[in-house]
Amino acid sequence: MNVVTAKDELKSKIAEYKKQNKSIGFVPTMGFLHEGHLKLIEEARKGNDIVILSIFVNPLQFGPNEDFESYPRDQQRDEELANSSGVDLVFLPSVNEMYPQSPGYTISVQSRVNVLCGKSRVGHFDGVATILTKLFHLIEPNRAYFGMKDAQQVAVVEGLVEELNFPIEIVPVSTIREADGLAKSSRNVYLNKEERREAPSLYRSLVIAKEEIVKGNTNFEEIKEMIKAYITQNTSGVIDYIEILTYPQLEEIKVPKGKVILAIAVKFSKARLIDNITVEI
C-alpha cells in the first residue's frame, strides 16, 4: 500500500493507473476509520482495479463552534486498517497541502441544503462540495463511495456530480450499525456510558415510524410526533430536528408517493448524532 501526502505525487500515481487502464474506486474520509468506512472500502474493492482512500479532516466543513480541533484522529491505526482492507493508495494531505492559501474559490451549494443538517450548519456543505471537487479532480475516480448514514451528504454529492458533469458514478452504501442498532460513527466515542446505552433508541424510533408508514399511515406530522415522543422518553438527548422528506430531493412531501427519508439529529453532552431510514410509499 502506498501512502501519499503531496498532490504532485498523487497525480503521478493516478497517471500510472490511467496508463494501465485501471479503474479507480475512491473512498473519501476524515479518518478515525470504523466498520462503516471499511464497508465502503469493501464495496470499492469489489468493483474496481484500484482503491484509493483519502484521509483529510477538512476545516472548511466545520463551523466556528464545531469540533475541528478535537475531531478524533489516529493516523497509524487508520493506515493499518486501510492496508489490511486492501486499499492500494492512501492520500493523506495536510491542510496546507490542500489549501496552501486562503481559498479564493469555493463551491456554493444551493440545492438540498436548507433542511436537516444543512439548516443549522450553514456553509457545511459548501465545504464538503469544495473539498470533494478538489479530490475528484486530483483522483479522477470511476466511482466514489459514500455511506447512507449521512444521506443528505449523499444527496448533495449526487447533485454536485450531476450538475458539474463529473464523469463519476456515486455509489451509496447502506449504514453499518452496532449490534444494538446504533449507526457507526467516529463521534460515538464522545458518548458517556449512559448516553451510549440510550443512543440505540434513535434508530428504534425510526424503525417504529417506518413500520407505521408501511401500514399506510401518511400523516407525517403525527409520525414525527411519535418519533419525538420515543426519543424524549428513552434518551437524555436534545432533539435538533425530525424530518420526513422526499429523497433525494429533500423537499416537502406534497404527494405521498415514491421514496421518502425519515431523518433525525439528537444532541448529547459531547456528541451530535444523526440517523435516517428510507421507505418507499
Automatic annotation (TrEMBL):
The keyword Flavoprotein does not apply. It is an enzyme of class 6 (ligase). Keywords: ATP-binding, Cytoplasm, Ligase, Nucleotide-binding, Pantothenate biosynthesis. Its EC number is 6.3.2.1. The active site is at H37. One of its GO terms (molecular function) is pantoate-beta-alanine ligase activity. Beta-alanine binds at Q61. CDD domains: PanC. It is found in: Cytoplasm. InterPro entries: Cyt_trans-like (IPR004821), Pantoate_ligase (IPR003721), Pantoate_ligase_C (IPR042176), Rossmann-like_a/b/a_fold (IPR014729). SUPFAM superfamilies: Nucleotidylyl transferase. ATP binds at residues 30-37, 147-150, 176, 184-187. Pfam families: Pantoate_ligase. PANTHER family: CYTIDYLATE KINASE/PANTOATE-BETA-ALANINE LIGASE, PANTOATE--BETA-ALANINE LIGASE. The reaction proceeds by a bi uni uni bi ping pong mechanism. Catalyzes the condensation of pantoate with beta-alanine in an ATP-dependent reaction via a pantoyl-adenylate intermediate. Belongs to the pantothenate synthetase family. Homodimer. This is Pantothenate synthetase.
